[in-house]
User: Which sequence fits this backbone?
C-alpha cells in the first residue's frame, strides 16, 4: 500500500515539514551527489561511515569502523572522524538511494503536516528528532555489534506515523494498492494503512536474521512506538482536526 494523501485540512502552511523535506533532499543531491542511484550506496562509501550511525560505535565508545574492501568492515581505534553523537543527527538526513529518499519523504509529506499542526513547529521539530534518536537506539539494541551504518529519516518518520495513528485513526487516506498484477486506488482508514505498515515492519523484523538485511526494521518499530506513546505529551491542539472549516486545502 502506498498512501497518496489524507483528508484532514491544516490550519496553516506546514513550514517545518516542508523544511525537513527540503533538508533531506538537499543532503542527498549535494552531499551525496557522487552516489545517486536507485540501487543505493555500497559499503565501501566512506561517507556512510563518516556520517551514518553505526551501532558498534555507539556500544563501543572510542572505537570506529571503516570499510576495508567491497564487503569487509574493520572496527577499532582507527583514526579521527565526526563524533558518534554528531552522527546520531546527521544519519537522519542521509539516504541510501533515490527510492529510500522518495519513500520517506512521501510519508513525511502526507502525515507530517497534520502532526506539525497538532503541536506547532518547535514541538514538532523536537518530536521528530527525538523519534529519530529513539529509533536509532532501538536498532542498536537489536544488533549492538553491527558495524553497518544506519542512515535515513525512516525512524523519525515512523514516529510521525505512530503519532498520526493515535491522533487521527478515523482519517481517510487515499491509497494506491498493489496485489500481484492488480492495482487500484481506494480510500482507507488511517488506522488500517498505518497499522498495516507497522505490522509489516514487525513481521519483517521477526522473519529476518538480525544484522543480515539492508532495512533497519527495528528502527521503524522503535520510532512508531515512540510516536504512539509520547504524541499526547507534544500535541496540544489536535482534538478538532477532524473538522474541515477554516483550514487550508489538503495536500
Assistant:
Amino acid at each position: 500500500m502506498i498512501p497518496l494523501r489524507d483528508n484532514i485540512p491544516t490550519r496553516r502552511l506546514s513550514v517545518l515539514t516542508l523544511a525537513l523535506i527540503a533538508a533531506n533532499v538537499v543532503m542527498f543531491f549535494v552531499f551525496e551527489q557522487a552516489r545517486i542511484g536507485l540501487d543505493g550506496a555500497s559499503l565501501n562509501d566512506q561517507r556512510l561511515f563518516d556520517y551514518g550511525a553505526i551501532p558498534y560505535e555507539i556500544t563501543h565508545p572510542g572505537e570506529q569502523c571503516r570499510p576495508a574492501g567491497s564487503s569487509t568492515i574493520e572496527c577499532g581505534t582507527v583514526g579521527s572522524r565526526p563524533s558518534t553523537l554528531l552522527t546520531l543527527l546527521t544519519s537522519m538526513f542521509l539516504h541510501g538511494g533515490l527510492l529510500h529518499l522518495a519513500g520517506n519523504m512521501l510519508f513525511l509529506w502526507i502525515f507530517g503536516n497534520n502532526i506539525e499542526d497538532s503541536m506547532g513547529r518547535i514541538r514538532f521539530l523536537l518530536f521528530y528528532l527525538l523519534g529519530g534518536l529513539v529509533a536509532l537506539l532501538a536498532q542498536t539494541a537489536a544488533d549492538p555489534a553491527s558495524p553497518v551504518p544506519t542512515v535515513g529519516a525512516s525512524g523519525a518518520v515512523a514516529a510521525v506515523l505512530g503519532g498520526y495513528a493515535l491522533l487521527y485513526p478515523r482519517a481517510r487516506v487515499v491509497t494506491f494498492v498493489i496485489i500481484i498484477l492488480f492495482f487500484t486506488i481506494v480510500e482507507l482508514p488511517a488506522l488500517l494503512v498505518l497499522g498495516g505498515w507497522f505490522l509489516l515492519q514487525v513481521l519483517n523484523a521477526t522473519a529476518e536474521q538480525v544484522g543480515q538485511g539492508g532495512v533497519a526494521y527495528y528502527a521503524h518499530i522503535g520510532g512508531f512506538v515512540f510516536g504512539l506513546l509520547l504524541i499526547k505529551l507534544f500535541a496540544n491542539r489536535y482534538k478538532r482536526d477532524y473538522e474541515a472549516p477554516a483550514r487550508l486545502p489538503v495536500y
Q: What stands out?
A: The chain has a mean pLDDT of 85. Strands lie at 2-6, 64-67, 73-76, 172-179, 182-189. The CA atoms of residues 82 and 159 lie 26 Å apart. The domain at 2-234 is CATH 1.20.1540.10 (Rhomboid-like fold).
